[in-house]
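<goal> How does this chain fold?
<sample>
Here is the protein in question

***
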Amino acid sequence: MKRTVFNEDHEAFRETIRAFIEAEVVPVHDEWLAAGQAPRDFYYKLGELGIFGIRVPEEYGGAGIESHKFEAVMYEETSRAGVSFGGSGVHVLLGLPYIEMLATDEQKKRFLPKFVTGEEMWALAMTEPGTGSDVAGMKTTAKLSDDGTHYVLNGAKTFITGGVHADRVIVCARTAAPREDDRRFGISLFAVDTKSEGYSVGRKLDKLGLKISDTAELAFVDVKVPVEDLLGEENKGFGYLGLNLASERWGIAFGAYAQAKAAVRFAKEYVQERTVFGKPVAAFQNTKFELAACQAEVDAAEAVADRALEALDAGELSPAEAASAKLFCTEVAHRVIDKCLQLHGGYGFMNEYPIARLYADNRVNRIYGGTSEVMKMIIAKSMGL
C-alpha cells in the first residue's frame, strides 16, 4: 500500500534532515550521551535550518506552514539514525502552541522571532514534586504585587524537559485558591524569563533513557514576573493546558511508531550480519517469524499514526482519538522494541548498540503525556462507560 501522508516537499525536507543528521549529529552523538545533553549551540543550528519556524507565521520569521508533517518527518529520521535532538522537541511541541493560542500581538512580536532562531528556547513547567498527574493539586503560587506591575512567583517544578537550556519557561502557578466546586480554577500560565532573580535550575535529573534530553528540577523564590508575561487570562490556565493535549499525545504516538520502525531496521541489519552455528541469525525460522510479526505491528502503528496526523492537521483530532493513538502506538513500540532487542542477543544489552538506547528511551512513552492507564480512562469515557 502506498503511503499518502507525505508529498514531494516533505520528502525533500527528509533528505535535508537526513544529511544534517549525518553531518552534524552522528559524529558527536556519543559525546552528547556522555555529557547528558546536547550543547546549547546545537539549537542555533536547528534554528538556522528552519526547524523551529516551520509553523510560525512569516511576519515573525517563520515559514507559516500550518502542518505537523515536517515534525513527523523529523521523528522518523532521528529514530532511523538512532540519535536525538536533545530537549529541543518540547520547544516546538509544547512551547509553540501556547504562544500561538494565548500570546497577544505584543507578546508574539517579543517572543516569536527569538523562538524561530533558537535564541530563546522554551519549555513547559507543569509537574510538581508530589503531585504528578494531578495538575489541579499544584502548590506553586504567583501573587500580584500591590502596585499591579508584576507577580511574585514561589514554588518548585520537576521532570521539566529542556529545563537546563531553557531561556523562557511556561510556568503553571496558582493565582487564586481552588473553588469548592472546581479545584481546577485559579491556575494561570506565565512566560518566565529564566534569567530572573530567584529563578534557579536544580538537579539535572539522571534518567533511565532520553539521556541527551536535559530534564531538570526548577525552583522559584520571590521571582518577579512582569504582568506583560501572563499568557492568556488569569485563573483559566487549566483549560488552556487541555487544549494542547491532543497534539502532544499525537507527538508521542508518532515518535513511538517511528522508534518501532527503526527497531525493526536495526534488528534486520543485525541478524543478516551476525552468524551463529555457521549461518546468519536471519536464516532461522524463529528470526523470520519474529521480525515478520514486528513488521505487521509497525504497519498497523504507521496507519494509526498517519491517520492521527491527518486529523491533527485538519483540526479534527479529538482527545479520545489522540489517547487511542498514543495508547496503541506506544504499546506496539514496547512490544516490537523488546523483540528486536532479543534478536540482538547479548549485544542488545550493550549501550553502544542503538537498540539498547532505543529500549531505554522508549519506556517513558507509556508514562509521560498521560500514562497508558489514563489513556484507557479517556477512551472508556468516550465510549460512554
